[in-house]
Amino acid sequence: MKKVITYGTFDMLHQGHLNILKRAKALGDYLIVGITSDDFDSRRGKINVQQSMMERVEGVKETGLADQIIIEEYEGQKIDDINRFGVDIFAIGSDWQGKFDYLSEFCKVVYLERTKGISSTQIRSKNNHLKLGLVGKAKRLWKIANEAISINGLDIVGTSGAGYDRRLKKLDDYSFEELIEKVDAVFIESDIKNRYEQIKYSLERGKHVLCYLPMAIGRSQQHELLEIAKKNDCVLMSGIKTAYSTAYYRLLLMIKSGEIGDVASIETTCTSLDEVSKIKNYQKNDIWSAMDAWGATALMPIFQILGTDYVDSMIVSKKIDGYFDLFTKMDFVYKNAVATAKIGKGVKSEGEMIVSGTKGYAYVPSPWWKTDYFEIRYEDQNRNKRFFYELEGEGFKYELVNFLRAINHGRTLSYTGNDVLEEISNVYEKFYDGKDVRTI
Ligand code: CTP
What we know:
By secondary structure, this protein is an alpha/beta fold. It folds into three domains: 3-113, HUPs (Rossmann fold, 3-Layer(aba) Sandwich), CATH 3.40.50; 122-239, Rossmann fold; 246-390, Dihydrodipicolinate Reductase, domain 2. Helices cover 35% and strands 26% of the residues. It is built from 14 helices and 20 strands. The strands form three sheets. It has a nine-stranded mixed beta sheet with strand order 19-18-17-16-12-15-14-13-20, with helices on one face. It has a six-stranded parallel beta sheet with strand order 8-7-6-9-10-11, with helices on both faces. Strands 3-2-1-4-5 form a five-stranded parallel beta sheet, sandwiched between helices. The longest helix is centred in the last third of the chain and has 17 residues, at 290-306. The radius of gyration is 25 Å and the shape is globular. Cytidine-5'-triphosphate (CTP) is lined by residues 8-11, 16-17, 19-20, 92-93, 95, 114-115, 118-121. Cytidine-5'-triphosphate is lined by residues 8-11, 16-17, 19-20, 92-93, 95, 114-115, 118-121.
């Protein structure tokens, strides 16, 4: 029996895929189709695949052409598969011409003609043409604008509040209302005091919103926004990019599955340092305080892992002008655990995250909020494990792709639960009210 193997993502199965599967099958008697796992695709930079691995597997299965379907999960797996399954022919489309010649040491390599004029990329951009607006200051928006360029199906149509800035390339700046008219969705990273009104305005006009946290001050305002989104069939998602990075998401899953036992403590630290002279003029220089810049990021893993039912909390803040906090430490006491978030704008520290458990601990080195790497460490060091998941750019791409996916699927993806969003807004309310806050 002659065995043939072929590989691909097979996203939104199209005629080109059908043709190649038929041609590959015709080369032998038994066809094995390797379908890339979501992880493998995102590691190799193919991050805007629309269908999940299971959906893609189903698509190939339905063609009835595959005798066996396998999942491709790692670099170098093709050699293992060829040997393991006793494959005679490796077949792939002509767009890969020459790329797999190295496999001819193990089996025959055949490049099959690619069908012209169709690809998953093309279908994706036709289906998901989304017009996105960016709201906020240029210095906070240019990175996301740059990373968005390479996402197909996403067009950035302009900014509001950014003014002209050469880092934003040729994007036009509009009034907020004008921008909302032009777009299907907005990314908001404006000053905290403006966000609630901006989000409400957008949602009421049927626009999807991706917004930095907090979205509003206080639980009830945040809750109201979530309700408005639901009523208007709009997606409202957290714009903190950390939540969408593979490494961070994996870390959460591992902790939740008991890898380090019961969690007893979480410590998160996020700081960035601005010059004292600039900070003194923070309003003119448009500098966010420690809480405005870092609070939500540092709080997010605490509420995601331990939940929001803490029994006690204390916030200590080192402020200037009674408003601008240079450094803030937030402590939370739960029934069986404690947590601390330390954030700084005029104080610098090691930006790491440590989650301690009864069996071991998770260590994410600085800067943990841009993480591609973490370790699970145990008493017996030989058991320590290291995990690395490549992060392209600063990770804005992943949040945009997930936002796009949520819009296409017609529902908000729960990377950051509503309870977490509401609790973060609640802490900001306490902070601004000065309730439970000690100032030093
Ligand atoms: N293929 C083909 N003809 C096309 C599109 C794909 O023969 N018009 C082949 C590829 O050469 C490959 C297999 O189908 O052997 C799976 O390709 P995949 O990367 O999943 O499909 P694309 O449509 O090329 O996807 P993308 O646009 O995301 O790169």
